[in-house]
Amino acid sequence: MALQEETPKFKNKSSDKNAVDILGVQDFDAVEFYVGNAYQSAYYYQRALGFKPVAWSSLKTGNRKYASYVMQQGNAKIVLTSSYEPSSEISSHQLVHGDGAKSIGLRVKDAQIAHDKAIERGAKSVLEPITMKDDYGEIRLSAIETYGDTIHKFIERDGYDGHYLPGYQPFQPILETEERGVVRIDHIVGNVNWNQMDPTVQFYHEVFGFGTFLEFSPDDINTQYSALSSKVVRNYNDRVKMPINEPAFGLKTSQIEEYINYYHAAGVQHIALSTNNIIETVKNMKSNGVEFIEVPQTYYDDLKQRVGDIKEDFNELAKHGILVDRDERGYLLQLFTKPIQDRPTFFFEVIQRRGAQGFGKGNFKALFEAIEREQSERGNL
Ligand code: FE2
After folding, report:
1. Is the pLDDT of residue 366 over 80?
2. What percentage of the chain exceeds 90 in pLDDT?
């Protein structure tokens, strides 16, 4: 189906392309974060966000270099890794960026072909294809650079029954996990520096064959003070969707610039986790200490006129501060956490799609006004 037909109400510019399957990218795989204290991060991911620690690698499993926990909820996997050594690549990443996403895993048909084609088409290798084995089977793995210090790991895991990679062992959790209804990763957003959005989108076009899905200009996404531009790239089967944001000029500091100032590079801004019941997911996360952005109650005054009939109760949505947006295919519900570390960098989104394929364009203004209030409280606006 042509993108033009799917998204008639959005501005389609000459850079729009249909996705083609060049590298055999099938879906997101695990996202690995380098953090200061993986043990304590794992506790937050489990108790607050509802991820179950399913596997680990550490001194106790024979890993002398780093500790790493595989956290899973539904099909969403987040790996939290901390180094034992001061001069490791993990430690230097954490020193510069704080806690942040190092690797966006992509499940591929063939890790050798994905890697070699990517290199041929202009990507930089960070890991030549390797085969890893343990009692759970065999994996092939390779990796390339993307924006900032972030990488994509190509993971071929058809012949593997373990949770993540060979060497990781099943984890015996101390606590029971109460899941929050997360089903999978819906999309992963990257923030890049001034004028880097188009080259980054071009990289995904040329190297991956990804298409452009939607585009937002500063006219769509501005508030009184700051602005951003965004384009969404996606793979052929729509399982991998990655908006790329760059700052735009406004009266004051763009929130994307604030991110870059604290992350000290381009990097992953947020991961959207999909749920089939956003009210329950948000309610349970909130009652376990997850902080979400505060949506002004005025947002709900004319919500019914804006989105029409929906299955959810408007009062419940207002009570939990959940945002709603409609496009030509249906509607979606979404909400954003505050940054989940001290630096104003990475946060999560919770999203429930009821037909809509977009990213909540109609919410951008309300959302960014709320984010700016936070930014202002930090003295960074
Ligand atoms: Fe998002």
Report:
1. no
2. 76
Span from the CA of 189 to the centroid of ligand 1 (angstroms): 6
- Of the candidates 299, 296, 46, the one whose C-alpha atom is nearest the C-alpha of residue 180 is 46
pLDDT surpasses 80 at 13: no
Q: How far apart are CA 233 and CA 179, in angstroms?
A: 30
Q: How many residues does the chain have?
A: 381
Give dist(CA 33, CA 37) in Å, integer. Answer: 11
Structure tokens, 177: 């996990």
Question: Do residues 20 and 235 touch, judged by C-beta distance below 8 A?
Answer: no
Higher pLDDT, 324 or 303: 324
In angstroms, what is the span from residue 347 Cα to ligand 1's centroid?
10
For 9-24, the DSSP string reads TS---TT------SS-
Domains and CATH numbers, the chain: 25-170 (3.10.180.10), 182-378 (3.10.180.10)
pLDDT at res. 265: 98
Q: Please tell me the number of Cα atoms within 13 Å of 379 on its side-chain side.
A: 1
Please report which confidence band the pLDDT of residue 297 belongs to, taking 50, 70 and 90 as the band edges: confident
Contact 52, 177 (CB under 8 A): yes
DSSP label at residue 208? I
DSSP 357: -
Taking ligand 1, which is a single-atom ion, which protein residues have CB atoms under 5 Å away?
272, 349
How remote is the CA of residue 313 from the centroid of ligand 1, in Å? 23
Q: Could you give the CA distance from residue 107 to residue 141 in angstroms, rounded to a whole number?
A: 10
